[in-house]
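User: Structure with zinc ion, tokens only please.
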Amino acid sequence: MRKRPRINRWTQSRRDLIFSSGIKSSLVQPHFVVSGKGIDEEIESMPGVNRQSVDVLIETIGKDMENGMSSHMLFGVVDSHEKDPMATKASDMEMPLQRAVLQLKEKYGDKIVLMTDVCLCTATDHGHCGILHDHEIDNDLTIPELVRISLSHAEAGADYISASDMMDGRVKAIRKAFENEGYTNTGILSYSVKYASSFYGPFRHAASSSPTHGDRKSHQMDIRSGYPEATFEAMMDQKEGADIIMVNPAMTYLDVVRKVADSVSKPVAVYNVSGEYSMVMSAAKEPSKRKAMVQEIFYSFARAGADIIVSYHAREAISEKWFE
Ligand code: PBG
Ligand code: ZN
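Assistant:
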């Protein structure tokens, strides 16, 4: 089977995230997981978001869970000496990301929704999202690696793998592999409409995933591209078996979010990316000012048709009850 609509209904927490009305339940908090112990490093230009080792992350998410923040997106950060051209470490079950998922699922089971980032750029020494062949990102050589990474996340117990790579045909390949290996309730969130944006800077610093040369324009969408390509990408991923369709960045593409939401039947997510977060954080140092801005921003996402909002503001919005 290529499509399993039951995946989005599988647990109460998945249903609450996707189907309940209201902003609060639609929020997802991103995290950066690093190796080591007791690590809790601040990230330049992302106040309030830290790079954390598994032990600290478990504590952080523990507090979030107590506050009613139950959906989390995890990004694994790979040490530079462990990177290689094939992103070998990204599919290693001993890496912090996989270990964090295992431990969190053991602790919270179906009460937590865990999404795990699948791409090569955090684990390749050249920082590109794919395998290089003759200095170019080779789509079809990259797919098996993405599949391997996805399977390791599924094995660890992720609710959804989030494919952020923008290679053609990867949703189909991942879905097929999940079917073959018996992961019939693991979902795929696809970054279907991902622009080659200038708003990813702080993230690349946090995830140490900047390309050493060149850019991401041969796979991420051109910032000038409009609705035909966006809806094409979204519908293609839906057809290939994606369970959630995502647009990112969010604030500069609200028109695209609306068009995509009108075109697909699957739930739509937006990613309020790192540069968007930094802008607000530097403009609004006072919580009350921040509250007003974040409310206005999140309501615009909802109005544009987003069912799910991934945002670094999620934690503060929930703990400070900005949407109650
Ligand atoms: C990695 C990835 C990126 C983001 C999500 N996954 C950065 C990139 O494509 O360079 C952006 C997230 C953010 O800026 O917060 N493929
Ligand atoms: Zn990438």
